[in-house]
Amino acid sequence: MTAQAAHLPRWLRAALDWWPAGLLAILLVFAVLAPWLAPLDPDRQNLLARLKGPGFEARGAVYWLGSDELGRDVLSRVIYGARVSISVAFMSVILSGVVGVTVGMAAGYLRGWAETILMRLVDIFLSIPAILLAIITVAVLGPGFINVILVLALTRWPRYARVAYGQTLAIAGRPYVTLAHAMGASAPRVLALHILPNIIGPLLVVATLEFGLMVLFEAGLSFLGLGVQPPTASWGSMLSTGRNYVGSAWWIATFPGVALFMLVLSANLIGDRLSDRIGKGHG
Amino acid sequence: MLRFLLQRGAQALIAAFGVVTLVFFIQRLTGDPTALMLPETATQADIEAMRATLGLDRPLWAQYVGFLGDMASFDLGRSFVQNASVWEIISSRIPRTLQLAAGALGVALLIGLPLGLLMALTAGRTISRWIMGLVLACQSMPTFWSGIMMILVFGVWLRWLPSSGTGTFAHLVMPSIALGLLSLATYARITRSAVVDELGKDYVRSARARGVGPGRLVRKHLMRNSLIPIISITALEISQLLAGAVIVETVFAWPGLGLLTVQSIAARDFVVVQAVVLLGAFVTIAANLAADILYSIVDPRVRLAGQ
User: Fold this and answer.
1) How confident is the prediction along chain B (307 residues), in pLDDT tens digits per residue?
2) Cα Rg, chain B, nearest whole Å
3) Cβ–Cβ of B140/A131 closer than 8 Å?
4) What is the ipTM for the molecules in this complex?
5) What gap in Å lies between CA A253 and CA A256, rounded to an integer?
6) Could B284 and A129 be called an inter-chain contact, meaning their C-beta atoms sit closer than 8 Å?
7) For residues B80 and B38, what is the distance between their CA atoms, to the nearest angstrom?
8) Which of A2, A254, A265 shows the shortest C-beta gap to B136?
């Protein structure tokens, strides 16, 4: 906290502290309201307006952030790209979280053989560098929106499993858990009602940081041509095109990158704040 | 010590076996891997011939045993697209990727460690917050974007550095920085938290009370004791760097394993993709094993804890 900031009213300081959440909210609004906020149709080509710089005007339409190699509006594509990034990241976080937390909690609560097998499986998945695992799986399944979500979930569930496992181990021996078990509660009931609520904090921290990572992974796969397929606007594929025109049309790669950076940065900052508040129980 | 080594070695072998199994089954997710290995123009006869060559007409378990056998004898197979052994194809690319990874690791260590140390020593002050902001920015920067932006500024506008290809040291600068940024952030954060942990300990307080200056405190006391988390993170970073190389090499047209992977996917040369993935996994496992062993040398408590 700087000296000037200390004089600000408390509510303003709190607001400033949570600016990453505000940034994330703005990007979310762009994603949800893309059809109303985008000035032009993101897929409309105009071959007479190819590779024009920011502010270019053609037939009454202004290309605020310039146009790409097919004469499409970069601003509109950046706005629509938020939809792909956010929805892929969100869904893969949910899917990998549910799978990973279930596996991790089961391993930590059941112990014995289930624990050995499940946690070894986690180790095996973690032995393959995530992006390579994602690449080989996408290469097998083929690219596309749903496949990218499935692949990212397949790649990332072990991270949640590790954290959920460690946390469950720590909680499972507590008297109230033993009591619930002794009173005849089934394993799923104990896990869902007595253990999950107590370990959700660290898991949320992991999920937030993973969200940023998933955004990067999705963009990375799209950049390599393995993500959401054209003509759907995605930041990764825009960057890939922009790479080819970096000498002549800098704006194509610059703006989707700025958007990507802001989204990932806000997720990372929120994750950091959460982890400071919740404690260091995450892996 | 021997028991510790054997135990860790066995765990590494189990992990390697698991990885091979996983890769085998991933390829069969769609049922027929020949579709991945032949160009789209292949005829039905080509597909049948390929199935017979690869032994795909055999039952699944027989294929699996055969695959395990090949892997155990380090036989990575043959690329039908390039008509060369996979080992030949990838071995020519390995030095390039190692060069890049070493450059990136150098960038990450040389900048990340001092930044982390500085953050720890100035904890609570404005400068520490600024450095943390910088580190978070590095962490959130997609490598392909930072790479392209560097090409734009230093390659296209200023013309200081070549924007793609290999050959001279100058070619290595931008790809190393692009690939190293994420690891830089990781090192800075790990160093910071390791040093902050150490700073709170009694021996540091008494050293300070004895009048030991900050320079000597860092050199003689903090560095060695903060080393453990840094070693373990290096093992993880090596595999991160290999994975990150896929994207950075594509951005800078750097002819290493990463670019090879991307080209092989486009050329439907799946045996090569599979070999690179397996190689990446084996390197990760080996790096983790090496980190465990190094650990036990730096801190004997690690070795003794399991006994």
Assistant:
1) 788 889 889 989 998 999 999 988 888 776 676 776 677 777 788 778 777 777 777 888 888 888 888 888 888 888 877 888 899 999 999 999 999 999 999 999 999 999 999 998 888 888 988 998 899 888 888 888 999 999 999 988 998 988 888 888 889 999 999 999 989 998 998 888 888 888 888 888 888 888 888 788 887 777 777 777 787 788 778 888 888 899 999 999 999 999 999 999 888 888 899 899 999 999 989 988 888 888 777 777 766 665 4
2) 24
3) no
4) 0.85
5) 6
6) yes
7) 8
8) A265
